[in-house]
């Protein structure tokens, strides 16, 4: 995938989740479309992203 970040053990780019959320879709919609990604992976990614954002503005 040329350095594109993907969910571990899948070929699903992280950007795909962000695109879904930006379009107003739910996490459940994303998971339905990409069953190789687990809810735990999505939550872990969002938690880490949240920490990064808070660290940048703190």
UniProtKB/TrEMBL annotation:
Organism: Microcystis panniformis FACHB-1757
Name of the protein described by the UniProt record: DUF433 domain-containing protein
Lineage: Bacteria, Bacillati, Cyanobacteriota, Cyanophyceae, Oscillatoriophycideae
A Pfam family reported for this protein in Swiss-Prot or TrEMBL: DUF433
Stretch forming the signal peptide: none
Domain of life: Bacteria
InterPro entries, per the entry: DUF433, Homeodomain-like_sf, WH-like_DNA-bd_sf
């Amino acid at each position: 995938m040329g350095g594109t970040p993907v969910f571990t053990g899948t070929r699903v780019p992280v950007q795909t989740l962000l695109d879904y959320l930006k379009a107003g879709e739910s996490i459940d919609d994303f998971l339905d479309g990409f069953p190789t990604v687990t809810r735990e992976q999505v939550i872990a990614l969002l938690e880490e992203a949240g920490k990064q954002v808070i660290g940048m503005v703190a």
